[in-house]
Amino acid sequence: MKPLTCISIDDNPLFTRKLEAFTEGLDWISIVDSYDNPIQGATAIVNTNPDVVFLDIEMPYIDGEYLVDWIKPRLESMEKKPRIIVISSVSEPPEELLANTEGFINKSTVTDPETLEASLKSILG
């Protein structure tokens, strides 16, 4: 089975490296690119059409909520829409954001590859 392709958009390079390291051993999911700039990340979503997008909420310039609102109409024209998972340190993400994404993972719960994998499987099925 071909692994799900993922893009990570997060301004925290330490968390991005952690996410990449934790998914490295998983054969069903692969982070193909990471962006610390949400504008570049949004462009990559449209251009590369990944299976999954890991998205932080609190970022400079454009927050995750704005990015989802901006990209949502562009995703409508895609045959296969990426599934967006919010991964953030906020305790409760905005309800509207959750309504437009697949699910939420709190960064503090991403402590090891097994925990991350269990969270991803519960969201992605």
Automatic annotation (TrEMBL):
Pfam families from the UniProt entry: Response_reg
Keyword set, alphabetical order: Phosphoprotein
Keyword 4Fe-4S: no
Domain of life: Bacteria
Modification type 4-aspartylphosphate: residues: D56
All copies of domain Response regulatory, residue ranges: 5-122
Gene Ontology biological-process entries: phosphorelay signal transduction system
InterPro entries: CheY-like_superfamily, Sig_transdc_resp-reg_receiver
Cited Gene3D superfamilies: 3.40.50.2300
Record has Phosphoprotein as a keyword: yes
Protein's UniProt name: Response regulator receiver domain-containing protein
Organism: Ekhidna lutea
